[in-house]
Design a protein that fits this description.
The chain is of the alpha/beta class. The chain contains 16 helices and 14 strands. A hairpin with a 2-residue loop joins strand 11 and strand 12. Helix 5 crosses helix 7, helix 11 runs parallel beside helix 13 and helix 13 runs antiparallel to helix 14. This is GB1/RHD3-type G domain-containing protein.
C-alpha cells in the first residue's frame, strides 16, 4: 500500500512535468548507460590552401547527399560560426550525443533509441566527435560536416502527410585568428549562412557593435554569392533570404537583468537590436539590415562552464566536470534546438529542398567562392578608417564650397574691364584661402589610421578641391566673357550710330555752305537737333548697360535668398521631426511603465499563491506521515515485536523522506508551470487591457451621443409646452422654459 501511494505521487509529478511524452520529453541526467559515436566522422567539405584558394571535397558531397536514404528527404542543416577557441566544436559534440540518443541515422537506421531519456549518458565519458581541444590555437579548418546524416519522419501540419527529413550537423573554422584573412573569414561566415537552415553565432559575454557590423558585411557577402545562381531573380526580394540565426552568448554574467536561457536571451536581443531614433544612422541601418535578412532571430544566454574546466589543460569534455548551471542550460539549449518540433527545413530561394537539390545548390555556391568574381573584403578597421575620413573630407569640402559661394568678384574698374589674367589671379587667391581653411579643418580633426592613411585621404581631398575650383573658375570666366561681349557690342553700335550722325552733319554743312545766307537760322536749329539726338543715344546706351548690370546683381541676390530659404526650411523640418520623436518616446515610456507596474503586482500575487499552496501541501503530507507513524506504532504494540517495530519505523522514515523529495520536486515543477502561466496571463491581461480601453472609448462615445439625443428631445418637449401656454401666462412660460433648459443641461451633463 505504501509503495503504491509513492508510485502514484511520482507518476503524477512526471505527468505534470512532461505532458506531451515521446521524443520531446526533456531528458534527465543519469549515470546508467554509456555513449559513443562509432557511426560517423568529420569531413572537410571546404578548406583553404596556402594561397587562399578554395578546395572542395566533391566526392564526399556526392556520397552524402546522393545516398538512397538522403537524396529524396528534405534537408535540415544546423551549423555553428564564431571566433576561434570559443567552444564551438565542444558544443557540436554534445549535439551529436543528443542526436544519436533521439534519432536514427544513415549509418544506424535501426537505432532502437534506447537512450533517448538519458542522452548525456555516462557523466565520466570523454567527449568525442568533431575535433576539439583547449588552448589558444586553431583546430577546425574550413567547413566540416558530420558524415553520418540523421533521419526523422514528421506529419506536415498543412498537408497531413508524412515528411521524411535528413538532418546534418556542421562545424566551421574559427574566425579572427592570426592565419586567416578578412576575406576568408567573410567567405566562411557567408557560406555557413547560405547552406544552413539554423546558424548558431557563438559569441562571448555580450554582443559588440563591431560583431553586428561584421554580421552585416558577411550577410551581404552571402547575398552576393546567392545572386550567382541562375534561378535568382528580382522577385526573390519579396521574402527574407536567410532563415534562423541564434546568438549563443557564452560566459553570460549579467544574470540580474537577463536570466540564463531562451527567455532572458530574447529580452537581451530585443534590447540590442532595438532601433532608436537617437542612434547614429549607421547603427540603425545595421539593425534594420539584420532584421530584413533573417526570418527568425533568437538568443540563448549560457553560463560559465566552471573554472575546473577552464583551468584544466587536460580536460577531455566529460559532463561531470561542468558547473551545475552550465549542465542545466546546455541540456535546455540542445533540447530547444534539436527536438523534432523545432527542426527547421532548409529553404533556398524560399523553396524547401531535398538532398539532391541541396547538393546542386552547394556546388553552385562553392563554385562562386572558388571564382575571382567574389569581391575582396577589407578589414573592419579599414572600413572604419574609410568611413571617418569620408565624414571629415565632406565637412572640409562643404566649408570650401561655402567660402567660394559667399564671395562676389568685381569684373570692372570703373568703366574699364579687368584683364583675364588679373581675374585669374584674384580667383586663385580666393581658392588658396578657401583651400587652406578646408585643409586646416581636415587636419584638426582627430582620426584613426596611420600617417599613410592621412596622406592618402589629404591628397584625395586636395584633388577634389582643385576639381571644384576649376569648375568655379570656368563658370566665372564664362560669365565674364558673356558680359564683356554684350558691352563691346553696345560700344560698336554706339560708334556706328556716331559715324552715321557725322556723315549727316557733313552733308548738312555742305548744303549750308551752298545756301548759307538763306538757311543760316534753319541750319543752326538742325545742328541743335542733331546734337540732342547724339546725347539721347549716348544716354540710352548708358542706361542699357546699367540695366544689364542691375539684372546680373539681382540674379545673384535671388539665388542667395533661395539658398537661405531652403536651409531655413530644412532646419525647421529637423526641429519638427525631433519634437515628434521625443513626444512619441515619452508616450511609449509612460505606457511601458504602467504595464510593468501591473505585471509586477500580478507576479507578486502569483508567487504568494504558489508559496501558500506549497506550504499547505507540505503540511498535509506531514500530518499524513504522522498518522501512518501512529498506526505503525499501534500495530507494533499489538505484535510486541521490537525488531519489527524498528524496521517499520525505518521504512516509514524512508517513505517520508521520499515523499518530501517528491513533493519538493512537484512544487518546483508547479512553480515553473505557474511562472509560465503567469507570463501567459500577463500577455493576455495586456491584450485585454487594450481591448477594454477600446471598448470603453466606444461606450463613452455611444453614451455621450445618447445623452445628447435625450437632451434634444427633452428640450423640444419643453419648448412645445411653453409655446402651448396662453399669451397672458407669458411670464410663467418664460420661467418654465428656463427650468426646462436647466433640466436638459443637467441631463446632458449627467
Amino acid at each position: 500500500m505504501k509503495i503504491l501511494v509513492v508510485f502514484i505521487i511520482f507518476s503524477i509529478s512526471q505527468v505534470l512535468t512532461n505532458p506531451v511524452g515521446g521524443n520531446e520529453d526533456e531528458p534527465e541526467v543519469q549515470q546508467t548507460s554509456e555513449h559513443s559515436h562509432p557511426y560517423g566522422g568529420p569531413i572537410n567539405l571546404m578548406k583553404f590552401d596556402e594561397h587562399e584558394n578554395v578546395i572542395i571535397d566533391e566526392d564526399s558531397l556526392e556520397r552524402t547527399f546522393n545516398h538512397p536514404l538522403v537524396k529524396d528527404r528534405k534537408i535540415v542543416a544546423v551549423s555553428i560560426i564564431g571566433a576561434f577557441r570559443k567552444g564551438k566544436s565542444f558544443l557540436m559534440d554534445y549535439a551529436l550525443r543528443y542526436m544519436y540518443a533521439n534519432y536514427k541515422s544513415v549509418a544506424f537506421p535501426d537505432n532502437p533509441l534506447t537512450s533517448k531519456t538519458n542522452w548525456v549518458g555516462n557523466l565520466e565519458e570523454p567527449l568525442t566527435g568533431f575535433t576539439w581541444r583547449g588552448g589558444a590555437s586553431r583546430d577546425t579548418t574550413g567547413v566540416v560536416l558530420w558524415s553520418d546524416v540523421f533521419l526523422d519522419e514528421q506529419k506536415d501540419p498543412k498537408t497531413k502527410k508524412i515528411e521524411k527529413l535528413a538532418i546534418i550537423l556542421m562545424d566551421t573554422q574559427g574566425l579572427f585568428d592570426t592565419k586567416t584573412s578578412a576575406t576568408d573569414n567573410s567567405r566562411i561566415f557567408a557560406l555557413g549562412t547560405l547552406i544552413s537552415s539554423v546558424q548558431i553565432f557563438n559569441l562571448n559575454d555580450v554582443i559588440q557593435e563591431n560583431q553586428l557590423e561584421y554580421l552585416h558585411m558577411a550577410t551581404d557577402f552571402a547575398k552576393f554569392a546567392m545572386k550567382q545562381h541562375k534561378k535568382y531573380s528580382k522577385g526573390s526580394k519579396n521574402y527574407k533570404p536567410f532563415q534562423t540565426l541564434i546568438f549563443l552568448m557564452r560566459d553570460w554574467q549579467n544574470v540580474v537583468d537577463f536570466e540564463y536561457g531562451n527567455q532572458g536571451g530574447a529580452e537581451y536581443l530585443a534590447q540590442v537590436l532595438n532601433i532608436d531614433p537617437k542612434q547614429p544612422k549607421t547603427l540603425q541601418d545595421v539593425r534594420k539590415y539584420i532584421k530584413e535578412s533573417f526570418d527568425q532571430r533568437l538568443c540563448f544566454l549560457m553560463p560559465h562552464p566552471g573554472f575546473e574546466v577552464v583551468n584544466n589543460n587536460n580536460y577531455d569534455g566529460r559532463f561531470s566536470a561542468l558547473s551545475e548551471d552550465f549542465q542545466t542550460q546546455l541540456k535546455d539549449f540542445l533540447y530547444s534546438l534539436l527536438q523534432p518540433k523545432n527542426l527547421k527545413k532548409k529553404k533556398i530561394l524560399n523553396n524547401e529542398v531535398v538532398g539532391t537539390e541541396y547538393l546542386e545548390y552547394l556546388k553552385v555556391y562553392f563554385e562562386a567562392f572558388q571564382s575571382n568574381e567574389i569581391p575582396k573584403i577589407d578589414t573592419l578597421h579599414g572600413i572604419t578608417v574609410r568611413k571617418q575620413y569620408d565624414i571629415v573630407m565632406t565637412e572640409a569640402f562643404i566649408e570650401y564650397q561655402n567660402i567660394l559661394g559667399g564671395i562676389t568678384i568685381d569684373i570692372q574698374i570703373g568703366d574699364q574691364w579687368k584683364e583675364k589674367n588679373v581675374l585669374e589671379q584674384e580667383m586663385n587667391q580666393i581658392h588658396q584661402n578657401a583651400k587652406q581653411n578646408a585643409i586646416k579643418i581636415f587636419k584638426d580633426k582627430k582620426k584613426l589610421g596611420s600617417e599613410a592613411d592621412e596622406k592618402k585621404y589629404e591628397d584625395e581631398l586636395r584633388a577634389k578641391l582643385e576639381t571644384k575650383f576649376n569648375e568655379w573658375k570656368a563658370f566665372n570666366f564664362n560669365k565674364y566673357q558673356e558680359l564683356k561681349t554684350v558691352d563691346e557690342a553696345n560700344k560698336i553700335k554706339l560708334s556706328e550710330m556716331k559715324n552715321e550722325t557725322d556723315i549727316k552733319i557733313q552733308q548738312e554743312q555742305e548744303l549750308a555752305r551752298i545756301e548759307r545766307e538763306k538757311l543760316e537760322r534753319e541750319h543752326q536749329e538742325k545742328t541743335n537737333i542733331l546734337e540732342g539726338t547724339i546725347q539721347e543715344v549716348r544716354n540710352k546706351t548708358t542706361e542699357e548697360i546699367k540695366i544689364l548690370q542691375a539684372e546680373f546683381n539681382k540674379t545673384q541676390i535671388e539665388a542667395e535668398r533661395q539658398r537661405q530659404l531652403l536651409l531655413d526650411q530644412l532646419e525647421n523640418e529637423k526641429l519638427q521631426i525631433k519634437k515628434k520623436a521625443k513626444d512619441a518616446e515619452i508616450q511609449l515610456k509612460n505606457q511601458l511603465d504602467s504595464m510593468q507596474q501591473e505585471m509586477r503586482k500580478k507576479e507578486e500575487l502569483i508567487k504568494k499563491e504558489i508559496e501558500d499552496k506549497k506550504e499547505e501541501k507540505i503540511e498535509m503530507l506531514r500530518i499524513k506521515a504522522e498518522e501512518r507513524k501512529m498506526e505503525l506504532e499501534r500495530q507494533t504494540i499489538i505484535e510486541a515485536n521490537r525488531a519489527q517495530i524498528m524496521a517499520a519505523q525505518r521504512e516509514a522514515e524512508k517513505e517520508r523522506i521520499q515523499e518530501e523529495r517528491s513533493i519538493r520536486k512537484q512544487a518546483e515543477i508547479q512553480k515553473r508551470e505557474e511562472r509560465k502561466r503567469a507570463d501567459r496571463e500577463q500577455r493576455e491581461a495586456f491584450q485585454l487591457f487594450q481591448q477594454q480601453i477600446a471598448e470603453s472609448r466606444i461606450q463613452a462615445q455611444r453614451e455621450e451621443r445618447e445623452a445628447r439625443e435625450r437632451s434634444d428631445r427633452q428640450m423640444q418637449m419643453i419648448m412645445a409646452n411653453a409655446n402651448a401656454k396662453p399669451k397672458e401666462d407669458s411670464g410663467t412660460g418664460t420661467i418654465w422654459a428656463v427650468v426646462g433648459g436647466i433640466a436638459a443641461a443637467s441631463l446632458f451633463l449627467g
